[in-house]
Amino acid sequence: MNNTILLLTILVALVLLVLAVQKILAQNKTILQSERDIANIQTAITQQQADFEVELEQKVKDAKKRSNNMQRNVLKGQIGEQFTPFIADFPYNPSDCRFLGEPIDYMIFQNLHACSEGLADIEEVQIIIAEVKTGNARLNARQKIIKQAVQNGQVSFKELRIKYCENTENMTVLTS
């Protein structure tokens, strides 16, 4: 009987041992699968990072190119603004034009030189406020205000006189 109990105890111990080994093998299989999954995720992350870096590099390159093109266009526009009176089909005498640049590009005193030389009547003299634009550029807010003020007739001529006071060495401006 003692042998039977001993044999049954050994048998139960073996069954428990087999079950424990099976559980360990299942856990190992799960761990190996998890490690494979982690490796796959790491590979995917590395690939995404590489793709992102390539994409970022291209976007930076494109942005620099756009920026350079914009700067060139602005520079061309600024140069073009100043040379506008010398373009072949410019409708005014370049010597009648004064470049301001901001807030508007030109004050054109049409026929001023001709009138001062007796070659045109005073009625032919016209003062023109001109803004040069290229491409799709539009008037900014201040330029629109100036345009509206001119269209409304809100234009006048003022003569300013500087008066110097010798006693105080101050200067004042008188408006007539």
Write out key terms for the chains shown:
about 180 residues, three-stranded antiparallel sheet, alpha+beta, two-stranded antiparallel ribbon, 2 domains, 3 helices
Determine the mean pLDDT.
Answer: 91
3D shape: rod-shaped
Report the β-strand fraction as a percent range.
Answer: 5-15%
Radius of gyration: 44 Å
Number of strands: 5
Order of helices and strands: HEEHEHEE
Subunit arrangement of the protein: single chain
Q: Strand count, sense and closure of the main sheet?
A: 3 strands, antiparallel
Distance between the termini: 136 Å
- The class by helix and strand makeup works out as alpha+beta
Protein name: Putative Holliday junction resolvase-like endonuclease
Pfam family, one: Endonuc_Holl
Organism: Psychrobacter immobilis
Keywords: Endonuclease, Hydrolase, Nuclease
Give a description of the structure.
By secondary structure, the protein is of the alpha+beta class. It is built from three helices and five strands, in the order αββαβαββ. InterPro entries: Hday_junct_resolvase-rel_dom.
How is the topology of this model organized?
Layout: H1 2-83, E1 97-99, E2 106-110, H2 112-116, E3 126-130, H3 141-151, E4 160-165, E5 170-175
Antiparallel strand pairs: 1-2, 2-3, 4-5
Summarize the structure.
InterPro entries: Hday_junct_resolvase-rel_dom (IPR019287). The chain is α+β, with helices and mostly antiparallel strands.
